[in-house]
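Note to self: the last two entries modelled the partners one at a time, which told us nothing about the interface. This time every component goes in together.
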Amino acid sequence: MPELNKLTITEAGTKLKTGEITAVDLARACLAEIEAKNKDLNIFLEVFEDVIVQAESADARRKAGESHPLLGIPLAIKDNVLIEGRKASAASKMLENYVATYDATIIKKLKDAGAVFLGRTNMDEFAMGGSTENSAFGPTKNPVDPSRAPGGSSGGSAAAVSAHMCLGAIGTDTGGSIREPAAFCGLVGFKPTYGAVSRSGLIAMGSSLDQAGPLTKTVDDAKLLFDVIKGQDYLDSTSISDATYPKTNSKKKIGVPRHLLKEGVEPDVLAAFEKSLESLKAKGYEVVDIEIPSAALALSVYYVIMPAEVSANLARFDGVRYGLSVKGDSLFEDYAKSKALGFGPEVRRRIMLGTYVLSSGYYDAYYGKALAAREKLTKEFADVLAGVDAIAMPTTPCPAIKIGEKSDPLSMYLLDIFTVTANITGNPAISVPMGTVIREGVPLPIGLQLTAAHGADDSLFEIGKLL
Amino acid sequence: MISKEEVQKLAELARLELSDQEVAGLQKDISNILDYVGQVSAVAIDDATPKVGVVHNVMRQDEVRISDDIMAGKEEALRGEFPKREGNFNVVRKIIQKDE
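The predicted structure of the combined assembly is written out below.
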């Protein structure tokens, strides 16, 4: 059967339901594509040995009368999501041989639905980066143009969907790590409202920022995956229910913060953005100018709060209970050597930065102020979103970067300038494809980002579908 | 630029061993990043700034809920992750030394 791996989840679901194809057919098609391309693109860190067994089990469940839109759908899972009995390394030497002892809540939900897990995908180490170049196991290449990075940190998950090695994938997003690679690989990427999806079983980076979400070929597929993984969870005390935030009616209005787009955005990206706005207008939406006065601070706020949380979260990797353990001449040396050999340069840099902003004498000037700015920004977003359905921006100021192009950490951080805000404020945000721009003769995909009010995740699918 | 000594002090606080070359690199990187993020220090905090805001701890009763215990029956798997094991024990370095 030709090219089953190129189907959307929704299309494959229909074919499975009617019996036209089986889960084993789908799994075989994806495995063949992985076999053909993974060596060159370095997308999967591991392809599970039992994929066909999982698919057979899904087929058996269907035969026994079960029917779920995800039953038998082959997915790729980011390497920082725990699946019991399988390795989860967060693309780090620290956890290279770590085997998960339990399922993440989202994995349990996906298993219940009958999804088939193909393998674990490459990422920036501990999700720290925007290009997947920070993986301890080598960079992933962008299937659209292998001289370029797929974005990150969920770059492996994005590249897997883009290269048709799977039908959809799970990523995590702390500052844009789902939306940015989705934009760079021509996909839909969705970061839910903070708390909408349980964080239990995700390897933590910034606990007040992290959310898991889908990377898919279509908006319908993203909604389908989100509907399965969402829900309040006793194991994540910050998870929320459908009733946590009030429901609002559509205002048929999109807000655009033009004051943020005056500089730094490449001209053809801006032109594609304007074109997307025109198509929303044609679908009956009014496009209005909005102001978010503190938005210019967002990246600074993020690069204070995130490293602070990183330094606290990664303190647990001490070589004592699990993970890499290197012996020195003293207890201090045991810790210091395990961390030095276990963590890569970007992780070490962020731990150091986080230690700095939290240290005595600097806490008030950096972390305290960043928290205050976070409050301001959250309030400004809430005020603006009381008047519009969504805020529209380009997902990134430029298309995918070349592998090795950005060697200075700060210039890499600037790629996150439009995505970090939704993590700081906890709002849901989606990136949908908005055409291509040409670089060196190659058309490269870019994305449109829409941000909605807390709990208004579904409105993003409704608007996203129009594009 | 932050000093070599400051970087070394931070590394000690973070329990991180750094090479001399890395210390020099981090002096530059951390200084550049701090220059950029330093704009947050200009944020005015007034009475309107909420004390408990978007980020706060969510507490629950400390009660046993067997049905939610994802670790039930996983003891052996957890022990299997110990770097050094003796029977059911995790072997760690002696921390408290007897005073001479």
